[in-house]
Amino acid sequence: MISSNRLRFYFLFLPFILLSCGDDDNGSNFSDWTAIGSGLESNVLKNVLTEFQGSTNCPFCPAADAKLLSYFDSNSDEYVGSDITSKWFLINYHTYSPSRGDPMYEFLRAETAEDDYCYIRFEEGNWYQGSGVPATYTNGVRTSIYPEMALVPMSQKTPIQISLSGTKIEGSNIDIRVSIKSSIDMVSSDSLHLFICATMDNVMYTGYNQEPQHQDVFLGWITAGQSGELISIGNEEIAKNYSWEMPSNWPQNNYENSWAQVEWDNSNLAVIAFIQNKYTKEIVQVSGKDN
Questions:
Q1: Which residues are CB-neighbours of 196 under 8 A, at least 6 positions away?
Q2: For residue 24, what pLDDT is reported?
Q3: Which structural domain, as residue segments, surrounds residue 107?
């Protein structure tokens, strides 16, 4: 027969036992960076990030956007092949240039320039120095749009690897698990900044320039702040969890505009994570996850 004292002990600790048994590495709640393993034995090849800056008020953006997207379209004569596109990621930032009124920018705009993602990323916020749209940056360098634009950075090696394994997109909710490995010790470096953002494909909205459908639309940063999160990493693997929810009223903003004509489906959500050197602007590594 079990004594009453032992029964009290058992029920007191039962919740902790169940939580412990149900936990594993993939489900661990890392609210801060946690070392989970060893680093890379050697450098790895880079993936590629192309950042497209445009607006539905830009008359030249639809042609540039279509040209870039044709390289990813298996039905296009310009398709560059899955070996390249599987390692090539896109973010399409909608901005206030050449004029305000793009709903995909207006939802995210800030009351002051110093808090506005577009100003910080593309104007005078020390990441890029923009001069009109359309503009395209590939792995941190402003480039024209041509089929081989990803090949040079894709041939380069980097000490950093990013994984989004364990990230789950369920309806409007995204639970992000990002892990980063390094082949060298960079604990003392202050150059590396991690950016994580949500994007969406197949957004339907016809604005001034008559482009009806929009891909890889930037929905906002998941990392805190507008300039990424400083990463300090040794020759190790570190991991952290984030969560994000698609705003149900997107792109209705809290200011003066209403955009009832915008159509979207949360099944088209995706996540992109990249690390950028704040001094050289080089994209050190990038990874993505879609539904």
A1: 176, 178, 221, 222, 223, 242, 271, 272, 273
A2: 42
A3: 46-159+192-225+250-290
d(CA 288, CA 163): 8
In the predicted structure, residue 7 carries a pLDDT above the cut 50: no
State how far the Cα of 167 lies from the Cα of 209, in Å rounded to an integer.
36
DSSP 61-92: HHHHHHHHHHTT-TTSTT---HHHHTTEEEEE
DSSP conformational letter for 4: H
Give the predicted TM-score (pTM) of the model: 0.89
Q: What is the distance between the alpha carbons of residues 42 and 47, in angstroms, rounded to a whole number?
A: 16
With 60 as the cut, is the pLDDT of residue 27 above it? no
- Mean pLDDT, the chain, rounded, equals 89
CA distance 243 to 249: 18
Q: How many domains does the chain contain in total?
A: 1
**Side chain identity at 72, as an amino acid letter?**
F
Per-residue burial over 222-239, b if 16 or more Cβ lie within 10 Å, else e, is bbeebbbbebebebbbbb
- Asked, for residue 148, whether it belongs to a domain, the answer is yes
